[in-house]
């Protein structure tokens, strides 16, 4: 990226004692964001849970609707409920918000529960973004996904390729909700002068991932299937699709580190310049810039787990997008790069899986 000086990198007023709301704190990314904030010394974190109770080493009393840990308060709150979200913002008055709550899932869940994916995501983000505006939140970070980019997007995918051609059909409802979230943040910033920023992570994996084979993403699914095949001496493991699609994977703790880094260092700015070109600055990609085919991923997991059977590719199952590799150069120019390599991340995740 040329002319980096046009980016607004002024420091926010995020203090160690600032009240920070992590919406979706029991999910894959939200839990990693809370861990990262605690490691960095933030002391006033509030989070919510609904169906999934917080499960960590901290002690809390699950009899009560508000769970106090050392530095984190978990409030039972359904983010689909507009009235409850309004009361929450009124009572808690958070200064900073990470919007990491979403209805998420892998290719099959996105394709099957299309109505739930569009309704729940729109509803959650409408509630949280609008109440953040009404209650004077200083800065909000909206988390999306790289499925916002077109199906046949030029590779690697730059931020400016948003809304340039049709989306991949399997996850179109989810992608449309996420695009609405980006545009909502941008619109509130432009009309009301808020400071709402959006980040688009690539495919994520890590502790607290979803291992349900019907609804999960590929990495936890393959880890579980291959592990169970090893334990049960099953001769073959079914891999969905042709094995040819390529995916980029980022460890959830790296993702969390990038989110906290950007909340600390980045403010909304409408446009920036690349040479002579003025680019609308709606969001930032969070990725590694490196991808791998599903077949290669399956072989890597097979090696880590130590499974000697065969992999069978079921082409009756969908491939989805053939390739979606982010261009993370905007993030790199701001001074952040991922640390955990894929093989190391899978080993960490497998160790976590065996313990949980
Ligand atoms: O991770 P995944 O479900 O989602 O699938 P997407 C990635 C690729 O892995 C697809 C293949 O080509 C799948 O067919 N795959 C192989 C498997 N075996 C399996 C398996 O056992 N389970 C699963 N789940 N996949 C999602 C989007 O797309 O990615 C979301 O639907 C979101 O909207 C998310 O963007 C990050 O990468 O295709």
Describe the sheet with the most strands.
8 strands, mixed
Within the largest sheet, what's the order of strands? 3-4-2-1-5-6-7-14
Structural class: alpha/beta
CATH homologous superfamily caption of the domain at 20-206 and 249-289 and 325-341:
NAD(P)-binding Rossmann-like Domain
CATH architecture annotation of the domain at 20-206 and 249-289 and 325-341:
3-Layer(aba) Sandwich
Helix and strand run: EHEEEHEHHEHEEHEEEHEEEEHEHH
The average pLDDT score comes to: 91
Kindly state the percentage of residues in helix. 25-40%
Radius of gyration: 20 Å
Number of helix segments?
A: 10
- What's the shape? globular
Q: What is the fold-level CATH name, i.e. the topology of the domain at 20-206 and 249-289 and 325-341?
A: Rossmann fold
Q: What fraction of residues sit in β-strands?
A: 15-25%
State the name of the first-level CATH class of the domain at 20-206 and 249-289 and 325-341. Answer: Alpha Beta
Distance between the termini: 42 Å
Unreliable stretches, pLDDT < 50, 5 or more residues?
A: 1-11, 57-65
> What's the β-strand tally?
16
Bound ions, cofactors and other small molecules, one mention each: guanosine-5'-diphosphate-beta-L-fucopyranose
Plain-language structure description:
The structure is a single chain. With 356 residues, this protein is of the alpha/beta class. The chain has a domain at 20-206 and 249-289 and 325-341: Rossmann fold, CATH 3.40.50.720. The chain has helices spanning 28-39, 82-92, 107-112, 114-134, 172-192, 218-231, 252-265, 294-305, 329-334, 342-355; strands at residues 20-23, 45-49, 66-68, 72-76, 96-99, 139-143, 196-201, 203-205, 236-240, 246-247, 249-251, 271-274, 277-280, 284-286, 292-293, 310-314. The longest helix is centred in the middle third of the chain and has 21 residues, at 114-134. The chain is globular and about 60 Å long. Bound molecules: guanosine-5'-diphosphate-beta-L-fucopyranose. Residues 106-108, 110, 145, 147, 170-171, 174, 203, 216-218, 221-222, 239-241, 245, 247, 294, 317-321 line the site of guanosine-5'-diphosphate-beta-L-fucopyranose.
């Amino acid at each position: 990226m040329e002319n980096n000086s046009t980016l607004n990198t002024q420091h926010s007023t995020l203090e160690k004692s600032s009240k920070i709301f992590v919406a979706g704190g029991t999910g894959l990314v939200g839990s990693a964001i809370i861990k990262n904030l605690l490691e960095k010394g933030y002391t006033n974190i509030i989070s919510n849970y609904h169906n999934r109770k917080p499960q960590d080493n901290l002690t809390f009393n699950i009899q009560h609707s508000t769970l106090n840990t050392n530095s984190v308060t978990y409030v039972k709150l359904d983010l689909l409920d507009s009235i409850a979200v309004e009361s929450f913002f009124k009572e808690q008055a958070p200064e900073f918000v990470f919007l990491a709550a979403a209805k998420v899932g892998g290719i099959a869940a996105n394709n099957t529960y299309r109505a739930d994916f569009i309704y729940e995501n729109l509803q959650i983000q409408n509630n949280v973004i609008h109440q953040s505006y009404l209650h004077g939140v200083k800065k909000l970070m909206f988390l999306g996904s790289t499925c916002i980019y077109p199906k046949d997007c030029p590779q690697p995918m730059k931020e400016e390729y948003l809304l340039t051609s049709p989306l991949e059909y399997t996850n179109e409802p989810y992608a449309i909700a996420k695009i609405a979230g980006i545009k909502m943040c941008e619109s509130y910033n432009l009309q009301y002068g808020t400071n709402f920023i959006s980040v688009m992570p690539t495919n994520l994996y890590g502790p607290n991932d979803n291992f349900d084979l019907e609804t999960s993403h590929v990495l936890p699914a393959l880890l579980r299937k291959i592990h169970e095949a090893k334990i049960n001496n099953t001769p073959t493991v079914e891999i969905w699709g042709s094995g040819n699609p390529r995916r980029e994977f980022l460890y959830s703790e790296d993702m969390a580190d990038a989110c906290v880094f950007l909340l600390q260092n980045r403010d909304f700015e409408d446009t920036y310049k690349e040479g002579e070109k003025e680019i609308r600055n709606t969001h930032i990609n969070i990725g590694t810039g490196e991808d791998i085919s599903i077949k290669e991923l399956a072989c890597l997991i097979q090696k880590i787990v130590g499974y000697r059977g065969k992999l069978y590719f079921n082409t009756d199952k969908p491939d989805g997008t053939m390739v979606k590799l982010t261009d993370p150069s905007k993030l790199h120019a701001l001074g952040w790069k991922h640390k955990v390599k894929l093989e190391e991340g899978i080993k960490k995740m497998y160790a976590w899986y065996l313990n949980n």
